[in-house]
Amino acid sequence: MTLDLADDTGTNLIIGYGSVLFWIGYHDQIKGKSKDPLRVMPPFEIDDVFETEKELKEKGVQIIANAQLSPTKDFYYLTIQDLDDNTINLYSFNLKND
């Protein structure tokens, strides 16, 4: 859903059944690339971090942390960086690669 409010614009992502909302907003006081791209790392659940890693590498996406088992050993994750230097975590509870 894209909103265009009088004082604010952005995109609201409703994740799952609406229990998690992720707002990506525009702010006219923010300029240039993020000065601290590791400050916010939004997580997104995907089916398979290993397949996604392969696909993203083929497309030239910068991989910050290769697909790996989490320290808690109950999910896999992959960390990427987008073109605006935002850091994004992708994770999967699919443990078929054990």
Helical region count?
1
Oligomer: single chain
User: Helix fraction?
Assistant: 10-25%
The beta-strand count equals: 7
* Radius of gyration (Å): 16 Å
Query: What is the CATH architecture descriptor of the domain at 37-92?
Result: Roll
Query: Between the first and last Cα atoms, what is the distance in angstroms?
Result: 38 Å
How much of the residues is beta strand, in percent?
A: 35-45%
The CATH class assignment of the domain at 37-92 is Alpha Beta
Alpha-beta content class = mainly beta
What coarse outline follows from CA principal-axis ratios? globular
Q: Please state the average pLDDT score.
A: 78
Sheet with most strands: strand arrangement: 4-7-6-5
Order of helices and strands: EEEEHEEE
Uncertain segments are none
CATH superfamily of the domain at 37-92: 2,3-Dihydroxybiphenyl 1,2-Dioxygenase, domain 1
* Biggest sheet character: 4 strands, mixed
CATH topology descriptor of the domain at 37-92: 2,3-Dihydroxybiphenyl 1,2-Dioxygenase, domain 1
Topology:
Blueprint: E1 2-4, E2 9-15, E3 20-26, E4 43-45, H1 49-58, E5 62-69, E6 76-81, E7 87-92
Parallel strand pairs: 4-7
Antiparallel strand pairs: 1-2, 2-3, 5-6, 6-7
